Amino acid sequence: MPVYKDKNAKLNPWYYAFEVKDDNGKRKTIKKRGFKTKREAEILEVEARNEWNKGSYYEPIKSTFGEYIYQWIDNKQNLSEQARYNNLNHIKHHIIPLIGHVPMSKLNVFILEKFVSDLQDRNLAESTIRKIYNIVNTSLNAAAKKELLPKNPMTLLESAPRVSKKKLDYWTVDEVKQFLNGFEHRQKIVFQLAIYTGMRMGEILGLSISDIDLVNKRIHVRQVLTYDAKLKAGAKTISGNRSIAIPESLLNPLLEQIRSMEIEIEQYGEEYNKDRLLVCTTTGKPLTKPNLTSTWYYLLGLTKVRKIRFHDLRHTCASLLLQLGQHPKVVQELLGHSSIKVTIDLYSHMTPNMQTDAVNALDNLLK
Predict the structure, then answer these.
(1) What is the domain range of residue 34?
(2) pLDDT per residue over 214-229, tens digit each?
């Protein structure tokens, strides 16, 4: 039996080695070291030989998980620029420091359990931990599918990290009024649009002057501003490419914003950015999301309104509409959700009376 003892090895000296022919008839040696006893090496040599004969033998990949996951993310298709950027950040800051050094062949359920535990010790948000978990799990699924691993060791974990359903945060009518009446600012129209239309930050920052139709009172969402201040055609979802009605209260602010931009366009001439954005710097360059976020928190302090995220203005818009009795389908179309299911899942707790009103309406009809 092809089992040998390495006389130079101080620990676990036993190993097995046997020759086989690959699919092309070329000879190759199957070898594995590191066994404590001869008997252990003999048993596993028989298993490896049987697996080879059945065509199920797996030859361990020699790279580390860090090397593999960078190659995987580089080759992964169907990822938006934003998703790729976010995934690379998670890989760089959380995955590589914890398990990037582990050889792929050594990655097992115990290492992955500790990995999840270490993520939790970093006091990350539950949703962030789940996203990181999903990145690792998806990459290992791909490795198993390509036969770089015999199976995905993530499947042996008892459960995926839980994500508690967060309670949505949004402003009341009084808080909205306190905020909007409490300041004047070059970017005020951004916050007005977010509250009145529920548009996303990237959608608002991506609006060009030509997207505003004051005659027909419509806003056309055709492009978004990405994380790195680049304009990208289309919205986050297919339904995100939409036409939004302009409320009467925003007609004058939008007109004033456009006039201000046109004055700056004339002032700077050829130096002015050709994109002609509705909200931008004095030379027409796009505002970055971090800069606008800084302005947002500055204005919260200035107006002394309860602190929420900018994205919560979107929830504020939805909540106020639903409180007025507007149908969730209308809210879905306004916010550009991919389906009405998304809207209902997010805001169903805000419409407790809809079922009661429906059955009472039918009851009155049939009396």
Answers:
(1) 3-54
(2) 999 999 999 999 888 8
- Taking the C-alpha atoms of residue 265 and residue 263, their distance in angstroms, rounded to an integer, is 5
b/e burial code for range 19-28 (CB count within 10 A of at least 16 → b): eeeeeeeeee
What is the Cα–Cα distance from 290 to 280, expressed in whole angstroms? 13
Strand partners, 30: 18
**Same domain membership, residue 234 and residue 203:** yes
Spatial CA neighbour of 232 closest among 195, 205, 263, 260: 205
Phi, psi of 302 (to 5 degrees): -65, -40
319 and 179: one domain? yes
Does 334 map to a domain? yes
**Residue-averaged pLDDT of the chain:** 89
Number of domains the chain contains = 3
Q: Is the pLDDT of residue 88 over 90?
A: yes
User: Cβ(311)–Cβ(215) under 8 Å?
Assistant: no
Which CA distances in Å does 310 have to 24, 173, 189, 235, 298? Answer: 61, 16, 14, 18, 12
The residue behind tokens 């404590």 is 36
CATH of the domain at 185: 1.10.443.10
d(CA 154, CA 136): 8
Instruction: Fill in the DSSP letter of residue 210.
Output: G
319 shares a domain with 262: yes
